[in-house]
Every structure is written in structure tokens, then in C-alpha cells.
Amino acid sequence: MTLWKRFLSNRGSLLGLAILIAVIAVALLAPVMFPRGPWAMVQRPFLVPFTNEDLPLGTDTLGRDVLAGLVYGARVSLLVGLVSTVMALLIGVPLGALAGFYGKWVDEGAMRFTEFFQTIPNFALAIVLVAILEPTLTSITIAIAIVSWPPVARLVRAEVMSVTKREYVDAARLAGLSNMHILVRQVLPNTVSPIIVMASLMVATAILLESSLSFLGLGDPNIMSWGFQIGAARTVIRSAWWLSFFPGVAIVLTVLALNLIGEGLNDALNPHLARKGR
Amino acid sequence: MQIAGTILSRLFKAAITLLAIAILNFFLVHAAPGDPATVLAGEAGAADEQMIADLKARFGLDQPFHIQLARYVGNIVTLDLGYSFRQGQPVLDLILDRLPATLILTLTAFWISLLAGVALGVAASARVGKFTDTLITSVALLFYATPLYWAALMAVLVFSVQLGWLPGFGYETVGSGFSGLARAWDILKHLILPALTLGLFFMAVYMRMTRASMLEVAQQDFVKTARAKGLAPATIRRRHILRNALLPVVTLAGLQAGQLVGGAVLTETVFAWPGIGRLMFESLAARDYNTILGVFLVSAAMVIVFNILTDIVYRLIDPRIGHKA
């Protein structure tokens, strides 16, 4: 409970939470709000925003409702952000945990592997992966997961290493518990809080990555996303500013919200660090 | 002496990494849907039977897997990155042609973001909790959440379309006939918006890092000693805190260089900047896999060079590192 209180007493995290809840609500209600879907042509193309009550944000180059696109785009952003983060955790946590727990050659091998992936420019790798595997929602999600797990592995390794040195782990060893049992039941639960903080920031980064890929035309062609909207409007920026402006605001708000929540969680979980005035 | 030894070992590691990327590229070509030969031909409509047969022979696609791998990697080691059937040129030539523009852009963005980020971080940490600090931190948080390409588009909209202050397109004025200083000035004007928008995100990263690091170092005992000696706060900040606080920032900057090269794909796309990022974007639409993989390899090589340079800078700032190793 105190954790919640500390989290909610922070104005930034409260704002972040409010924005995120709003985005989630909009994403869930999309089919109710716009039953025609984001691809329907509803009016003449290039309708200027705030001129038509039914289409407050205007229409795009093909006469599609910009607002409907935004609302459906929220679904993709949140889904890809969440699923790719979970996948990255599924790669990074076990790898980091094994490296930190067993040390020696396991650590050496796992860290070399991680370092290799950290050296590769990660956005370039994501582009290559999606381009070669054909752009679908699945390949985009996998590509983002593949480029985002290394920091998780490093974090978990460091945490596991420090926790493994504690006395209660020695006690568990003396009690004859197996290595796996100690790692999974005694060590890992004590590394959860920094992982949660990192995960919330990773969702934000994943949303940025997804939108950047879609912007380059590497989005799933059947799915409306914020990055796609901006990418499609890139060439008409001089005549139709609103087509790229609104989706961008949506991305900034969502990513900002997740970052605020991540920082709020960090401060709430490490109150002694927060007080130093970060 | 020690630095030379380290550089050698770093170069060795770099070679291994590049080799690994070449192998990764090979597997990617095979992971792509369709025949690897068609993939390498880049679905150029011109991929006729004869060309496919040539490709098969050249890459040994009729040979066992390990021989194919050896050939592919062998080609890359000898700097043969393949041929772009779309552009009708060897991939290496295409990349070398465009590399200078990308280097100018990324290096400028890197220095702008590092200098501005450190300066803002120091300013914020000096007035921690005050209005200046809140303002700088909030702006950084906003930049941190802004997609690179969107910042670029909005900058074009405001500074180029609306205000008409700066060109929002290209590397230099086409057909201007400028030379010498006039040309340099023209390129500089074209460089400002891309470099600034590419640097924004990283500026926010370095600012946050510098601020946190300054505050942390300021807590340490030697700073108290300096204060007790009666040194002026500005001197303490510059000579004692900043020098120590910079170390993690430099490390991070080196690591982030890779993201900068990746981000250049987006910035160059928006500004039609004729670098390797733009080349990659054009190749995406053309499904020119050879070029895409080539740009990928070269950008990884750029990151490695960048990391080695950071390592050297690190040693210059902190002589202790050399002794430890």
C-alpha cells in the first residue's frame, strides 16, 4: 500500500497514469467509437481540421478520418509495445539470471553474446529484420524484442550477482535446496522491482521503435498505426500539416506517460534515491 | 604504449564482431521468404534466368551450406558487398559515395547533443529543485518522448515552410554553382535542421545523465574537502565535480553512437539527406536486400569505430583506467 501511496503522491506519475488510462480506454473502445474502421473513406480528401463537426481532426490524402486512424493506432502501439517488451523480458531475464548466478564461462559466454547485440545499431537491425521477414505485426514485434533485450540481460545479471552474495542465499544452500530452486524462488523475486521499472521504460521505447518502422513503410500494411499515418503524410507536409501533427502528438503523449510512470515507479521503489533530488 | 595495446585488442574484437555480423547477414538472406538467389537479385524485375544462374554460381548456392557461408563471408572480408541490381552499381561504391554525408550529419549531431546535453545538465544540477532545473528537466523529458522523424517534420514545417529561415530539403542548393566558402555555408545551412533534430533525443539523454552524475559526485567526500578548503563553488563544479561526472556520460555517449547511426535513417529520409540512411530507405522500397544488408554492416562498423574512439577519449579524461587494465 505504501508503495502505491508513494507512487501516487508524485505529480508526474499521476499525470502519466491518467494519460495512459485514457489511451488504453480509447484503444479498447475503438470499434465502438468508429465502427466503420480506420480505412473507410468518409469525406473528401484533405479536409482541414476543426471545420467539420463529425470529423474534428479532418481527413487524410484519401478522405479517411484522421481521428479514427488515431484511435485505432493506439491499439497497435500499445499491443506491440506490451508484447515485444514481454518477449524481450523472456529472453533477457533467463539469460541475465543464468549469467549472474552461475558466473564463470556461462557468464562470459552470455555477456559476449549480449555485447554483440549491443554493438549492432539496434534500429538498423530492426529495419533489416522486418524488411527481410516481411512486415507483419508478428515480425515487427519480434524484431523489436530482439533489439531490446540486451539491457534487460545486463540489469538482471548485475542484480542476481549482488543478491546471490547475500547470507540468506548461503542459508538456502546449506539447507540443501537445489540451484534452480534458489535462483527461481529465492534470488529472482528480489530482483523484480528494477525489472518492472525497466519494463515500463521499454514499452515506451518499443512504441517509438514501432512508430519509426511504420513511418519508414515497414508497418503491417493491413493495420493503421500512428507511424504509418505520419509516413503517409510526409510528402504532403507543406500542404496538410495536420496529417502528421496529430499522430505525432499521440505518440509523444503516450511515450511521455510511460516514461513518467517508469520514473514514478523508480522513485517509489527506491525512496532513498529519490530523496537525493534526482 | 598501453593505449596502443588496448587499441590492438579492440581492433581484434571489432574484427570478430564484424565477422559475426557477416554471418548474421548470411542467415538473414536465408531466412527471407523465397530463394536466396532471388533475394540477392533484389526482386529486380530484371532478375532473369541467366542472372539467377550466375548468382547461384557466384554464391555457390548449389553447394553445401557451410561452403555457401564461407563464400558469403569471404566476399565480405574482401570488401565485396555484392551488387545492387536496382541501382546498377556495386553496393560498396553506393555506400562509399554516400558515407561522407552521413558522417557529417551524425558527427555534427553527436557533438551538438553532447555539448548541449552536458551544459544543460550542469546548469540543472547547479540549481537543483529550482525553476531552471524544473524547466530543463521537463523539456528533456519531452524531447525524450518525441520521435526523431516527427521532430524533423515539425522543424521543416516551422523553420522551413512557415518561417522560411532554413532549407528543409537536401544537402546543398542544386544548381547553385557555389564553390569554396559559399558552398560550405550553403551546406551548413542545410545541415542545421537535420543535425539539430537528430541530436534532440540524445541531448535529452546526455542532459539527464550529466545531471544525475553531477548530483551523485557532489555528495562525495573529496568535494566536501574542496569546499572545506574554501574553493569557489564554480571552481569546485568545474574542476572537481564535472571531471568525474563526465566519465559515465562519455561511456554512455559511446554506446549511444550506435543509435545515432540508426536514427540517421529517419532524419535522412525526412530531409532527403543523401547519406547511407537515405540509401537504406530507398532500398527498402525497392526491396534491394543487398544494399540494405550492406548499409547495415557499414553502420555497425561505424559504431565499432566510434566505440574505440570513445574508449581512447575515456582514457585521456581518466588516466586511472589505463593502470587498472
From TrEMBL, chain A:
Which positions, given as ranges, span the membrane? 12-34, 76-102, 123-147, 195-219, 240-261
Q: PROSITE patterns of this UniProt entry?
A: ABC_TM1 (PS50928)
Which key words are in the record?
Cell membrane, Membrane, Peptide transport, Protein transport, Transmembrane, Transmembrane helix, Transport
Q: Where is the ABC transmembrane type-1 domain?
A: 74-262
| Superkingdom, taxonomy of origin | Bacteria
A GO CC term attached to the entry: plasma membrane
InterPro entries, per the entry = BP-dependent_transpt_permease, MetI-like, MetI-like_sf, OppC_N
Classification via PANTHER family: D,D-DIPEPTIDE TRANSPORT SYSTEM PERMEASE PROTEIN DDPC-RELATED (PTHR43386:SF1), OLIGOPEPTIDE TRANSPORT SYSTEM PERMEASE PROTEIN APPC (PTHR43386)
Q: Which family does it belong to?
A: Belongs to the binding-protein-dependent transport system permease family.
Query: What is this protein's name?
Result: ABC transporter permease
TrEMBL record, chain B:
One GO location term (cellular component): plasma membrane
Signal sequence region: none
The keyword Transmembrane helix is annotated on this UniProt entry: yes
Query: Which keywords has UniProt assigned to this entry?
Result: Cell membrane, Membrane, Transmembrane, Transmembrane helix, Transport
Q: Where in the cell is it found?
A: Cell membrane
Q: Does the keyword Cell membrane apply?
A: yes
PROSITE patterns reported in the protein's UniProt record: ABC_TM1
Q: Which residues form the ABC transmembrane type-1 domain?
A: 99-314
Pfam families, A to Z? BPD_transp_1, BPD_transp_1_N
GO terms in the biological process aspect are:
transmembrane transport
Membrane topology term reads:
Multi-pass membrane protein
Parts of the chain that traverse the membrane: 12-32, 101-123, 135-167, 187-206, 245-272, 292-314
Domain of life of the source: Bacteria
Question: What's the family?
Answer: Belongs to the binding-protein-dependent transport system permease family.
This chain's protein is named ABC transporter permease
